[in-house]
Specification:
- This protein is α+β, with helices and mostly antiparallel strands.
- The protein has one domain.
- Helices cover 28% and strands 31% of the residues.
- Strands 1-4-3-2-6-5 form a 6-stranded mixed beta sheet.
- β3 and β4 form a beta hairpin.
Length: 125
């Protein structure tokens, strides 16, 4: 499957049938997922919408960052055209539940890299 395929075909439609049209996924309102309730459709939709804009989605898991000292939080970023933009889409919960949600969605884990912020646990693409 080529990159261009992802830009023109919504994978959620392939697996689950089309969903009614909504926004472009880049609103300013937080979109908070519960790992137990997040579905493969949620992740596929985010990935597809980013691809439509020519961007790659990366989810980064943080351990008690300053703005979420109560536990783990995963934030979705879009990378494209020389910059990285944080989206309002987040996932909170137990680390294993977040990992399980990403694994079930078919994402791939990327371990911490040299130079990462200390509270970064890992990233998923």
């Amino acid at each position: 499957m080529t990159y261009d395929h992802w830009k023109t075909t919504n994978p959620a439609d392939q697996w689950l049938g089309p969903e009614p049209e909504e926004d472009d996924g880049m609103s300013d309102e937080p979109l908070i997922h519960d790992p137990g309730a997040a579905t493969s459709r949620d992740f596929a939709k985010s990935q597809w919408q980013a691809a439509q804009r020519g961007h790659l989605t990366i989810w980064t898991i943080y351990d008690r960052p300053i703005d979420h000292p109560g536990g783990f939080i995963a934030r979705r970023f879009e990378v494209g055209r020389g910059n990285t933009v944080a989206t309002p889409e987040i996932l909170t919960g137990k680390l294993e539940d977040i990992r399980q949600a990403f694994w079930k969605a078919g994402l791939t884990k990327r371990s911490r890299q040299d130079g990462d912020e200390p509270n970064i646990v890992e990233s998923w693409v």
